[in-house]
C-alpha cells in the first residue's frame, strides 16, 4: 500500500487502493453495530465478555444476553389499523382488560409477563432459570425494579423512554404501532383462517431485530383479543416459540408480588431529579418537531478529495420520505426530479445540488427502501420506473425521529437529526450514568456521562459525554465519544483520541423545537483504516460538516408519499 | 474487530449482522472442542469467511468502471465525490473479492478489512508470514485483473 516502499507499483495499484479505501472507510450506523453485538451476545448465556456499545437499548432486552426469544417476545401486540377488522376495536378490547398476561415455555424454560395499561405496570419473571430474573416497571414512579437471585438485591433504576413505552403502550397508537413492548414491527400482513370450524384473524409480522423476528399473532374475532403469538426463526425453520395470552382480573402490585423474597433490600440507583428533568425535556423536545421538509448537506473534508452528498427529507405525520441529492458537477447525465417535486430550498441552490433519486419511503405502517438505489454516474436510470421498493427489513416507521438513531439506513446516516439533537440518554442496563449539573468546561450546560465495558480483547471502556443546553430545551450542543483502557480514569485530555460532535447555530420553531443549522463531526481515523501503511501510526482526524435546513411551512402534498409503486413492487 | 471486518467486506447492515452472528456461533462451537488462544484473530477470520460466503451469493450490478476509478478532474473543492460514488466503488471491489480463491480472499480480507498484520494473519491461518505476503500479492494482482484496472490505466495513458 505504500508507494515509497514498493517500486513495482503502478497506476493500477492506485486505482485498486481507491476501491479498497471506498470499502473500508464507509462507517456503519451505530445501531447496526449494536444489533450485531446483541445478536452475538445472545449466543452466550451469562457472558460478561460481550458488552454493548452504542446508543441506548432496551434495558429489558438485556435479556438478549440470556434468552433471545424472551427478549424478542415480550413484545408487540401492535397494530396498524386495517379497517376491515377494526383494529381500534382490538385496541379497545385489550385496553378494557385490567391485566394482560403472556406465558411461554421454551426448551423447558418458563417465563411470564404481565401488563396493565391502566395501572402503567409491566412485569416479567422467569421460573428456575437465568437466576430467577424479575422485573417490575412502574410508570407512575418512573422506576423499574430488577432482581436476580444470584445478586440477592433489588436494583431500582430510572424507567427511561423505552420503559415508558412498555408501561404505556397505548400512547403510541398515534405512531401507527400498538406497542406491548419495545420490539418494533417493520411489516405486517393480515389474513383470515378457519380451524375446526372456527374463524380466526391472523397477522404475519416481521420484527425489526433478532433472529426470531418472524411472528404470527392470532386474534379471536369474537372477543377482539389476541390469543397467542408464535415467533419463528428466519434462519432455522425448526425454531419457534409460542406465547399464550390470558386476561386475569389481578396482577402483581410490586416486585415482591412477583416472587422476590420478602425483605430483600433495594439498591436505589435513580438519577437525581434534575437529571430526570433533563431526560424528560429531551424526549419532549423530540416530540415538538412537527411536519417538515429538511435538506441535509454533508461535506467531508479529507485529503485528497472533498466529498459531498445530501438528502431531502419530507415528514408528514406518520409518513416520510428520503431522497438523495448530489452536486450537479458530478452528474454524468441529466437527473430530472419527478414532475411537481419542489426543490426550491436555498441550500439546494447554493450548493448546486440536483435531485438524484429515492432512497426510503414510509407509508405510515411500513418502511420501504429502494432496491435499485441512485447511481451517480447513471442518473438517467433514476426515473420513477427504475425505483424498486422492497420492505426495509430492520427499519420501523418511528425510526425517523427516534432518539435511538436511524436503524439500518446507512445511506442516509446524517438525516437522523432527532437522535443527534435529542438522543435517548436514559440509564440502561450495562451502562453507567453520571449527571453533572455544572460542568467546568461548558458553563450554562449540564453534562450526562455514560460508559460501558467494550467487547475488546484488552479491557476497555467506551465513554459518551453529552453536553446539553437547558436554554435550548436541553438539546445537545456537544458530544465527546472516546475509549480508554479499563484501568484508566474517565478523564478527557486534550490528546485523547475521540469523536467530537459540535451542534451549532441553533434556531427555534414557534412550536418550541430547537435545532442546529450545522453539525461538525470530527472522527479519529487510523492510518490503516484510511488505506495507508503504518498501522502503528497515531490516528488523524477526519472532519465532516453537515448543514441542516428545515422548512416547516412548505406544502407537503400527499403525492409526495404515494405508495402506489411501493405496494406494487414491495408488498 | 469481527464486526468491522464483516462490515467493510459487506457494507450491508443485515448481511453484516448475520455474518457476525454466524462467526460467533462457530467460534463458540470451536471453543467447545478446543482451546482458543486468540479470540480476536479467530473471530475476525470467521467473520471474514462468513462475509465472503455472502458476497459470493450476491448479485452485483455491472457498473462503468472507468468513471468510478478516475480521479476528480477539477480541484478538490469544486469537484467533490459523494457517498454514492464510494458505495459504488466498494460494491465493485466486493464483486471481485467474491471471485477470489478461498485463501486469497481470506488473506486479502483479513489484511484490509480486518486490519491485521501479516504476522497476525500468519498466526491465525497457521501459515508462514512469507506465504501471507505472497498470497496477498497474488490477491491484489488477481483483483486488478478481475477489475480490469490495468486495461483502464493503459487506455487512459494512450488517450
Summarize the structure.
The complex is a heterodimer of chains A (571) and B (159). Chain A is mainly beta and 571 residues long. In chain A, 14% of the residues lie in helices and 36% in strands.
Walk me through what this model shows.
The complex is a heterodimer of chains A (571) and B (159). Chain A has 571 residues and is mainly beta. Chain A has helices at 11-24, 30-41, 68-73, 87-95, 160-167, 273-287, 346-350, 417-421, 564-569, and strands at 100-106, 109-116, 121-127, 133-138, 143-148, 153-158, 185-195, 198-207, 214-220, 225-232, 240-246, 266-268, 292-302, 305-316, 319-327, 353-362, 367-370, 389-391, 432-436, 446-453, 460-469, 475-485, 498-508, 514-525, 540-551. In chain A, strands 18-17-16-15-14-13-25-24-23-22-21-20-19 form a 13-stranded antiparallel β-sheet. Chain A is globular. Mean pLDDT of chain A is 73; it is low at 1-7, 42-83, 170-182, 526-537 and 567-571. In chain B, helix 1 crosses helix 2 and helix 7 (118-125) crosses helix 8. Chains A and B meet through helix 1, helix 2, strand 14 and strand 15 of A and helix 1, helix 2, helix 4, helix 5 and helix 8 of B.
